[in-house]
Design brief:
Layout (H helix, E strand, L loop, with lengths): L2 H6 L12 E5 L7 H12 L7 E3 L11 H11 L2 E5 L3 E2 L5 E2 L2 H12 L4 E6 L18 E4 L2 H11 L8 H5 L3 E2 L4 E2 L17 E6 L6 H12 L5 E5 L12 H10 L3 E6 L5 H17 L5 E5 L15 E2 L3 H21 L16 E6 L2 E6 L2 E3 L2 E3 L7 E2 L2 E3 L6 E3 L16 H4 L6 E5 L6 E3 L4 E5 L11 E2 L14 E6 L2 E6 L6 E3 L3 E2 L6 E2 L5 E4 L2 E7 L14
Parallel strand pairs: 1-2, 1-3, 3-6, 6-7, 10-11, 10-12, 12-13, 13-14, 15-19, 24-25
Antiparallel strand pairs: 4-5, 8-9, 15-16, 17-18, 20-21, 22-23, 22-32, 24-26, 26-27, 27-30, 28-29, 28-31, 31-32
Helix pairs in contact: 2-5, 4-9, 7-10, 8-9
């Protein structure tokens, strides 16, 4: 999403701050809340940090909801501190910090760095299921001293990164890994499915069995709806945290049903927070049905949402049958204007189609690091139209994304798989240094984790003087041929020591071609194997 689109949601505010902020999520009713705020204020205000402590209820704004304030603060804060401690009410009963878990869900979707705290008095209480695998990352504190020491250690590593670096980063900060599900718009995972995904969350109370029977009855009337109960989820293969599974499920759901009772678990509120943040981040609505028995059961961050108040199963069923047609209509009518994420590279293509004997040129643009700018057109290619495998929409050869639903067109296996791994770049002047080209598109440059740049061809160790740009060039496969394209690099890309490539104008590569990126020289070679099919006649 472009910066202008972001401004339209009024989410990007940190650039106007006099002092950068640290968001603190806590329960005012907790006996230690005052000590927590004092300790945070003391550390954050030190000259080496110079952060302003802030939280949703700190200031009064009559025209802004508490939820909107919390979301903007979380999105724009350099760091977030979340006290996940349960606290005792005046009857001596433990209460879940429901607002804090909603705010944590927002932080997860917005990819913000978080410090998770838990008071030592909670030691005997079981962690929420989705946080059990993260128990080693939750800091226990007993008072101001332990909290100050933790902040002094954790804060420095996050201060240099502006908040919007995390919003669109493939590297998930809470999950501590590059996440496949952060690489695409949530709607892309939903578009073209034969079933509509819905996730449901409720509480493990005596009414759970009856409630789920009711849900199965009502949603079973819609043959194309698939239901997932959050408490049935297990960690995904390759992911360390159950929380990652929850995040993926919320991202891939078209709508959700939440039953909120005094025993509703933390997972429900985290899921709600993820959903709310995704709505603002991607500018689309995720229909939610909130079912409660008493109005006071609704967390203050959800005030203003239309809720279904029902005290019996028969009343819930009646209300669900009443509201579900409107929800399904909203889901079906949901529109999404496909737009690439800044870290997804959309290849430039210019093609001519011939209608009634008259050629008309159509061009897409390339999105690099969040900026959509017209590129200089390469040679015109005459090609047949292609059709999206998901929505059936018509596109043009060279399109990487469907012009109708936004889904990515797969590279035809018969074309790329037969040459995958047979082409390579050899670093000249280095012993046995080579890179196999195993993807249809290969970024050439230098790794920079802070900018979320991890090129397939990482020349960092061959570039001691930093003459190679982080996004220097790319080699991509099209029409049975590999092409080299400079990506507006600072020191340029030179072909065969003679031709300096114009930015964004692809040039065909032949076996034996030499390339120079800054001062780093490589050779493009073909690694033939006995009995292998011929690659392209264009490559000698």
């Amino acid at each position: 999403m472009s910066e202008d689109n972001f401004r339209s949601t009024n989410l990007m505010q940190y650039r106007s701050y006099d002092r950068q902020k640290c968001f603190v999520a806590f329960s005012k009713s907790a006996q230690w809340s005052e000590d927590l705020l004092i300790a945070c204020e003391e550390v954050l205000s030190r000259p080496e940090f110079n952060l302003e402590l802030d939280y949703a209820s700190k200031s009064f704004a009559p025209d802004v909801s508490l939820q909107e304030k919390a979301l903007k603060l979380i999105a724009n804060a350099r760091y977030g501190i979340y006290d996940l401690s349960c606290w005792k009410d005046n009857r001596g009963e433990w209460q879940l910090p429901r607002n804090v878990y909603i705010e944590l869900g927002m932080a997860i979707a917005l990819n913000r760095p978080t410090l998770l705290l838990r008071n030592e008095c909670n030691r005997h209480l079981k962690l929420p299921d989705c946080l059990e695998t993260m128990s080693g990352l939750i800091i226990e504190f007993s008072g101001a001293t332990t909290l100050k020491r933790t902040l002094e250690t954790r804060l420095p590593q996050w201060l240099k990164d502006p908040p919007d670096v995390g919003w669109w980063n493939r590297y998930c900060v809470p999950g501590n890994r590059i996440c496949d599900f952060r690489q695409s718009h949530p709607r892309e995972t939903q578009w073209g499915r034969k079933t509509i995904q819905c996730h449901v969350s409720d509480g493990p109370d005596t009414g759970q069995v009856d409630f789920r029977a009711l849900i199965d009855d009502v949603l079973g009337r819609f043959s194309h709806v698939s239901v997932t109960y959050l408490d049935s989820l297990r960690p995904m293969q390759g992911y360390d945290f159950l929380l990652c599974t929850y995040c993926k499920t919320v991202r891939s759901s078209s709508f959700a049903i939440y039953r909120i009772t005094p025993s509703t678990p933390a997972e429900t509120f985290i899921a709600i927070g993820i959903s709310l943040a995704l709505e603002h981040l991607f500018d689309y609505k995720i229909p939610k049905l909130l079912l409660i028995e008493q109005p006071q059961e609704l967390p203050s961050l959800l005030t203003g949402y239309e809720v279904v108040v029902a005290g019996s199963d028969s009343e819930r069923k009646k209300q669900l049958l009443r509201f579900m047609p409107a929800v399904m209509q909203k889901v079906r009518e949901s529109t999404w204007k496909p737009r690439p994420l800044p870290f997804v590279e959309i290849s430039y293509a210019t093609v001519e189609t011939f209608e009634k004997g008259q050629p008309t040129a159509a061009a897409s643009v390339e999105a690099v690091e969040g900026e959509s700018t017209p590129a200089s057109p390469p040679e015109t290619v005459v090609a047949e139209p292609i059709y999206c495998e998901l929505c059936g929409g018509r596109g043009q050869a060279g399109d990487v994304w469907s012009r109708h639903c936004g889904a990515q067109h797969p590279m035809p296996p018969s074309r790329f798989n037969k040459v995958a791994g047979k082409f390579k770049l050899i670093i000249l002047g280095q012993l046995d240094a080579k890179f196999l080209l195993q993807k249809p598109s290969n970024l050439i440059g230098r790794t920079d984790p802070h900018s979320n740049i991890f090129p397939e061809i990482d020349l960092s160790r061959f570039d001691p003087e930093f003459k190679v740009s982080r996004r220097h060039a790319r080699i991509f496969f099209r029409d049975d041929t590999f092409f080299i394209e400079d990506l507006n690099s600072v020191n340029g890309t030179v072909l065969n020591d003679a031709v300096r490539l114009a930015p964004k104008v692809p040039r065909e590569l032949k076996a034996g071609d030499k390339l120079r990126f800054g001062e780093t020289k490589v050779m493009f070679v073909i690694e033939e194997t006995p009995g292998s099919p011929p690659i392209s006649s264009k490559n000698p």
